[in-house]
């Protein structure tokens, strides 16, 4: 009986060990890896914003064409803040792609005198190049009309901007967009009116709603300029709001509007458009926004 009892106890011990072993596995979790196995790291999600895009297309108006930066009353695309090749400007495209890369993979579809209504057409041209980044700077000419009453309505401005982004997004779902704010036109008037030559050029028809009768400070002139300035602020609000609805769009946060252009940053011919120095400052703002870790 003793031998049988010892044998029985031995069998029970083996069974108990087996049960404990099973319980030990269940303690880790039925589907969990054993502690000895190394867990594989989860792949990092692809960021929505690429801070080093491989190609750039620019759309917009005379500022992006470098108007009056090099010669009087003429475009100077080589001095463009967005795509120009001038070493003095060090454009956004050159900063992102290098000089040779910018020459091959950047395109400028901006047109002097363009308004927001022209943006859908420019965008259609740009998407044919399949750029990874599109820069937008437009709106000054919507405010720079013959009179304040002729300015583009805010609702129309919004509709055309939304249409432009929709067409871009339909053609290029992953393309990124940098949107520059409309410059502070009243600030430009304040700086440029100190130049007799600048005021003579303004009489040729440069932004008459703001620059007309440059020396007039009567209530009517003040109201006219304030009305134009308010419309510029409304345009910038639209740019900010519409851009915020697109996860691959970055607005400059009003940086261009807030930049205090001095006479060194303004064309020596019209004291309104950016000079080469001013174009370089615009390039800095754009590069800082595009390469920021967060907008």
Automatic annotation (TrEMBL):
<feature type="signal peptide">
    <location>
        <begin position="1"/>
        <end position="27"/>
    </location>
</feature>
<protein>
    <submittedName>
        <fullName>SGNH/GDSL hydrolase family protein</fullName>
        <ecNumber>3.1.-.-</ecNumber>
    </submittedName>
</protein>
<feature type="region of interest" description="Disordered">
    <location>
        <begin position="30"/>
        <end position="54"/>
    </location>
</feature>
<dbReference type="InterPro" id="IPR036514">
    <property type="entry name" value="SGNH_hydro_sf"/>
</dbReference>
<dbReference type="InterPro" id="IPR001087">
    <property type="entry name" value="GDSL"/>
</dbReference>
<feature type="compositionally biased region" description="Low complexity">
    <location>
        <begin position="30"/>
        <end position="41"/>
    </location>
</feature>
<dbReference type="Pfam" id="PF00657">
    <property type="entry name" value="Lipase_GDSL"/>
</dbReference>
<dbReference type="InterPro" id="IPR038885">
    <property type="entry name" value="PLB1"/>
</dbReference>
<dbReference type="GO" id="GO:0016787">
    <property type="term" value="F:hydrolase activity"/>
</dbReference>
<keyword id="KW-0732">Signal</keyword>
<keyword id="KW-0378">Hydrolase</keyword>
